[in-house]
Specification:
Helix content: 10-25%
Shape: globular
Structural class: alpha/beta
Distance between the termini: 64 Å
Strand content: 25-35%
Largest sheet: 8 strands, mixed
Number of strands: 13
Number of helices: 8
Length: 258
């Protein structure tokens, strides 16, 4: 039951070329950066990634992307990354864009053993009708287009068939975790992390604070250890290394007091 491994390098050692990964995070919140960096050093290439976004230039999954190690992305948002746009438009990268809620449900469904489901999201758009550019050719033409999906009517409203997603591995980041793999996510980091963890056949979690079994209140656990196969305890420096995607400030008007 002790799922703790000695290092991030050991945890990702068996991720091979062409593996498909579900990766938690939203923007730069809850991104498993230590595992991503270990995977970069490990050298696996031709990876398929399922994640809300693909990091930013020089951060998160953007590190693997810039090295040409990602072949296909399934996600919802691809802004904030100029290299992603360049590779996609040049035909170097395949992209399947999915409505954000649909992506979340496809990951959850895959983790729960549900092969497919119907949703109204995307009906009447290229999401259902097909034709979105999954991959461009070098001359700018569409080399691979999305296929049309089955649409059925329920209660007088159209719904499109979407398939559950499962992946070879999942990489997630949690605030707290125990040796059995039970995880607690902090605030905004509880975004796609639980869903990605559910979808992975082998789920690897980096945790900011590792505790012994029994310390976590069962009612406070966001993801049961049944979904987690490996746990990596972060060092204090790794746990504290949290980038801010867009730092904003506002002018504060000081009001004199008597």
């Amino acid at each position: 039951m002790d799922k703790v491994v000695r290092s991030a390098e050991e945890a990702v050692a068996d991720i091979g070329d062409g593996a498909c990964l579900a990766v938690g995070g939203f923007g730069l919140s809850g991104v498993p950066d230590t595992l991503i960096q270990a995977l970069f050093r490990q050298g696996a290439t031709g990876l398929g990634v399922v994640s809300n976004n693909c990091g930013v230039d020089g951060g998160g999954l953007g590190i693997l992307l810039a090295a040409g190690r990602i072949a296909r992305v399934t996600g919802s948002y691809v802004g904030e990354n100029k290299e992603f746009a360049r590779q996609y438009l040049a035909g170097e990268l395949e992209l399947e864009l999915i409505p954000q809620g649909t992506l979340a449900e496809r990951l959850r469904a895959g983790g729960c053993g549900i092969p497919a489901f119907f949703t109204p999201a995307g009906v009447g758009t290229p999401v259902a009708e097909g034709g979105m550019a999954w991959r461009y050719a070098p001359d700018g033409s569409v080399a691979v287009a999305s296929p049309p999906k089955e649409v059925r009517e329920f209660n007088g409203r159209g719904h499109v068939l979407e398939h559950g997603i499962t992946t070879d591995f999942a990489l997630v980041r949690a605030a707290r975790g125990d040796r059995h793999g039970n995880l607690v996510f902090a605030k905004a980091a509880r975004n796609f992390n639980p869903l990605a963890a559910m979808a992975g056949r082998i789920t690897i979690a980096e945790v900011e604070e590792l505790v012994e079994p029994g310390v976590l209140d069962p009612d406070a656990v966001h993801l049961p250890g049944a979904f987690v196969q490996r746990v990596v305890a972060l060092t204090p420096d790794q746990a504290a290394d949290k980038r801010i995607e867009k730092r904003t400030v506002r002018t504060v008007r000081m009001v004199p007091t008597a």
